[in-house]
Write a structure and sequence with these properties.
Helix content is 2%, strand content 49%. The chain has 179 residues and is an all-beta fold. It has a single domain (28-178), classed as Jelly Rolls (Sandwich), CATH 2.60.120. It has a six-stranded antiparallel beta sheet, with no helix packed on it. The chain has a four-stranded antiparallel beta sheet with strand order 4-11-6-7, with no helix packed on it. A two-stranded antiparallel ribbon has the order 1-2. Strand 6 (77-85) and strand 7 (94-102) form a beta hairpin. The longest helix has 4 residues, at 134-137. The two termini are 30 Å apart.
């Protein structure tokens, strides 16, 4: 007989295995479960941010995060960018992802792992411009980052439309912290 594991997220944001023979602590650090709609602005605009308090991470953690995004069906670019920043804005952020959605009426899932390398101020991630489907096609080496998570940081998502009549969406954002 082959066994399987089933997981659910409890009220405190922790992933719990059922049947409850073992518990996996994986707090959800970043979460957005209502649709965010972005229209009109052709300049880069912050459309989501969430505070990550100092002390959230530990050395050797791995933060997995995922965006479900989409756009109206036309050939214009809708550019999503993901940043960490010590302020809740787009001034001097550290870019960690760029996703360009073109001619997509459906949602696209985009994810990354931020790997803490021996301390909370030294990380690795695939470069921001790496292929969306990097699990299958990327030969790109990870990039070193030095984001200071001993201080408050913000996870910031922006969007830039090529044409103001376009519409872009964030359908959801989730994360899991592996410790």
């Amino acid at each position: 007989m082959i066994g399987y594991k089933s997981y659910t997220i409890d009220k405190s944001g922790y992933m719990v295995q059922y049947p409850n023979t073992e518990t996996i602590t994986a707090p959800s650090v970043i979460k957005q479960n209502t649709t965010i709609t972005h229209t009109v602005a052709t300049a880069e605009t912050k459309i989501f941010s969430q505070l990550i308090p100092a002390g959230t991470f530990q050395a050797n953690d791995i933060l997995y995060w995922c965006l479900r995004i989409g756009a109206t069906s036309n050939a214009n670019n809708k550019t999503f960018r993901v940043y960490f920043n010590d302020t809740d804005n787009l001034t001097t952020p550290i870019i960690i992802a760029t996703v360009i959605v073109t001619n997509q009426g459906l949602s696209v899932t985009y994810d990354r792992d931020l790997v803490f390398k021996g301390s909370i101020s030294s990380q690795e991630i695939l470069p921001a411009t790496t292929n969306l489907f990097y699990y299958l096609t990327s030969t790109t080496a990870p990039t070193a980052l030095t984001i200071d998570f001993t201080a408050n940081q913000y996870f910031v998502v922006s969007c830039q439309l090529a044409v103001g009549t376009d519409t872009a969406y964030i359908y959801g954002i989730k994360s899991l912290l592996s410790r």
